[in-house]
Amino acid sequence: MRIFIIIMTSLFSTLAPLLSGGFYQFEVGRIAISSPKEGDVLQGVVEILGSTDIENFERSTLHFSIQDDPTGTWFLISESTLAIDDGQLALWDTSKITDGTYSIRLTVIKLGNEQETLIVDNLRVRNYTAIETDTPSPFISTLATPTPVKTQTPRPATPTHLPENPAELMYRDVWQSLFLGATLVGVIAILTMVFLTMRRKHHG
Q1: Contact (CB, 8 A) for 60 and 104
Q2: pTM of the model
Q3: Is residue 159 part of a domain?
Q4: Alpha carbon distance 81, 57 (integer Å)
Q5: Alpha carbons 134 and 131: distance in angstroms, whole number
Q6: pLDDT the model gives residue 83
């Protein structure tokens, strides 16, 4: 009997973290700029691609700056309250700025005013000057002839974030529950058989 109690205690000590949700760790997301990349030559209207879909997302901003600017001045490209998962973050009309080397900065503001920032340097804008001849097969990130970009009107008020619905089940939660349930039932069945066998031997 003492052996059975020890086994049951060890079992529940092992399963307790699983039942409390500590078994699986899921990556919610990360911020990224997939295009343009460092060293790219940019002309015209450039499509900036990336991701901002991270946990507790509230809003994001995109800025550009002249690289190595001693004043540290950044100029707004766009801002959004929509989390993007590997898609278009903004359109940047480089024809409105002087040719040179620039940096772009993506900032995601999360609930609680916590921020995550990503910077891509060495972006060469070449709308009005020749591309360096020593550059092997430069990648030119550009769209068609620059067209006016519509600016979205900022929302008048910050939306209220509703508390997460505890009854909502994600796909992975269903599989986690099935796995844990099957494991628990199987272990209890085995332990029950062991207990009954020991009991018969004891009374026999």
Answers
A1: no
A2: 0.55
A3: no
A4: 8
A5: 9
A6: 95
d(CA 105, CA 90): 12
Q: With respect to residue 152, please indicate whether it lies within any of the assigned structural domains.
A: no
Percent of the chain past pLDDT 90, that is, above it, reads 49
Q: How many domains does the chain have?
A: 2
Cα–Cα distance, 97 to 43 (Å, whole number) = 11
Q: Read off the DSSP letter of residue 94.
A: G
- Edge to edge, the sheet with strand 32-35 lists 32-35, 45-51, 87-93
CA distance 66 to 45: 17
**Residues 78/88, Cβ–Cβ less than 8 Å:** no
Whether the ω angle into residue 36 lies within 30 degrees of 0, i.e. cis, is yes
43 with 99, same domain?
yes
Picking from 65, 68, 87, 89, the residue whose alpha carbon sits closest to that of residue 76 is 65
Q: Is 160 part of a structural domain of the chain?
A: no
Model confidence over 52-71: pLDDT tens digits? 999 999 999 999 999 999 99
Q: Using CA atoms, how far apart are residues 154 and 110, in angstroms rounded to an integer?
A: 18
112-161 pLDDT, tens digit per residue, is: 999 999 999 999 999 999 998 765 445 555 554 554 444 454 555 555 55
Contacts for 71-78: CB closer than 8 Å, 24+ residues apart: 74/105, 77/48, 77/104
Q: Which amino acid is at 187?
A: V
- 169 pLDDT tier (thresholds 50, 70, 90): very low
